[in-house]
């Protein structure tokens, strides 16, 4: 006997993510799933961005990490609510982990939630966390050929942050190569050139984030 | 990388649906997996086999249909080869990618 199923294998995660998404929407919280390679600058970007947000915009951060709580400690210094998910070696966050982490955050106090995923350009792409959208961090030193090499990661990005732009002259990175590949994979995504080290591009980034509050 | 957790989800779906259909032994599982889904088929098959020990899916064959992403010219709607920067038909650079990230169970067979 043949049984037709026609189901996404990750449907269980998607359903849970949908619940999270609706719950956050009800509370008028915009949530961003931040993904990128290890060392691309995800935490450094948050460290610079959060203090630049307008005073009435309260943020919280969920930090996904394999084993340490270093990133959460760095974020805690910015004064916002932060909580750590240790994936104990798992390569990505999933919706169930985020649901548990959300219990530790006072959601009535915030209007924006950043979820920093595990540093990895492959696995996190398949798992929805109930986010409003995806922020992909790709640093100049990683090379300009990443969108076509990791299409599943770049395909659903709302914005790509080209970090470490201050190092561009030290590399053979070509912005036009990167934008051409992005156009093919995901023409809707915004691309912003920033440096978490010297702060360039952050005024635009703050405006981008504030412009998307619910 | 996370083929083991994908295989767990897959088995969950099969067990639930097999119960409803009155199937106690699964012989074939048909999947559709995009080339850009980040899944290595051999690894998924291996995880499936390991997790199926002493279960109704033990010994079941896993058929995987690989789905290539389609690159489509937004000007003339032709299909463009993956390695081309411009549409071979009209020369446009407005090319977008569709599909290739499928991760689906289509059906399974058993008694």
Brief overview, please?
The complex is a heterodimer of chains A (214) and B (111). Chain A is an alpha/beta fold.
Structure in words:
The complex is a heterodimer of chains A (214) and B (111). Chain A has one domain: Rossmann fold. Chain A is 33% helix and 22% strand. Chain A has eight helices and eight strands, in the order βαβαβαβαββααβαβα. In chain A, strands 4-3-5-2-6-7-8 form a seven-stranded parallel sheet, with helices on both faces. In chain A, strand 7, helix 7 (175-185) and strand 8 (190-193) form a beta-alpha-beta unit. The longest helix of chain A is centred in the first third of the chain and has 16 residues, at 11-26. The mean pLDDT of chain B is 93. In chain B, the strands form two sheets. Chain B has a three-stranded mixed sheet with strand order 2-1-6, covered by helices on one side. In chain B, strands 4-3-5 form a three-stranded antiparallel sheet, with no helix packed on it. Chain B has a domain at 3-68 and 100-110: hypothetical protein PF0899 fold. In chain B, helix 2 (41-51) links the parallel strand 1 (26-34) and strand 2 (61-67). Chain B contains two helices and six strands, in the order H-E-H-E-E-E-E-E. In chain B, helix 1 crosses helix 2 (41-51). Chain B is elongated and about 55 Å long. The interface between A and B is medium-sized, with 30 and 36 residues.
């Amino acid at each position: 006997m043949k049984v037709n199923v026609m189901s996404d294998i990750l449907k269980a995660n998607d359903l849970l993510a949908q619940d999270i998404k609706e719950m956050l929407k009800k509370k008028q919280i915009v949530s961003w799933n931040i993904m990128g390679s290890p060392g691309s600058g995800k935490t450094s970007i948050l460290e610079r961005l959060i203090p630049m947000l307008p005073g009435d915009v309260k943020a919280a951060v969920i930090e996904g990490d394999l084993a340490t709580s270093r990133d959460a400690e760095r974020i805690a210094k910015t004064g916002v609510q932060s909580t750590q998910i240790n994936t104990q070696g798992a390569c990505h966050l999933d919706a169930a982990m985020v649901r548990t982490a959300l219990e530790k955050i006072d959601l009535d106090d915030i209007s924006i939630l950043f979820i920093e995923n595990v540093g990895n350009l492959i696995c996190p792409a398949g798992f929805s966390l109930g986010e409003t959208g995806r922020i992909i961090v790709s640093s100049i030193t990683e090379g300009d050929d990443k969108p076509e090499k990791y299409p599943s990661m770049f395909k659903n990005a709302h914005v790509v942050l080209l970090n470490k732009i201050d190092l561009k002259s030290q590399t053979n990175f070509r912005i036009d190569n990167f934008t051409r590949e992005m156009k093919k994979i995901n023409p809707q995504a915004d691309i912003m050139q920033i440096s978490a080290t010297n702060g360039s591009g952050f005024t635009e980034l703050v405006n981008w984030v504030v412009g998307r509050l619910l | 990388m996370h083929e083991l957790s994908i295989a767990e989800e897959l088995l969950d779906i099969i067990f639930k649906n097999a119960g409803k259909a009155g199937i106690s032994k699964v012989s074939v599982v048909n999947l559709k997996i995009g080339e850009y889904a980040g899944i290595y088929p051999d690894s998924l098959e291996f995880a499936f086999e390991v997790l199926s020990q002493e279960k109704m899916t033990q010994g079941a064959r896993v058929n995987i249909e690989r789905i290539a992403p389609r690159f489509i010219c937004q000007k003339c709607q032709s299909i463009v080869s993956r390695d081309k920067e411009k549409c071979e038909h009209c020369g446009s650079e407005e090319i977008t990618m569709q599909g290739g990230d499928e991760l689906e169970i289509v059906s399974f067979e058993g008694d």
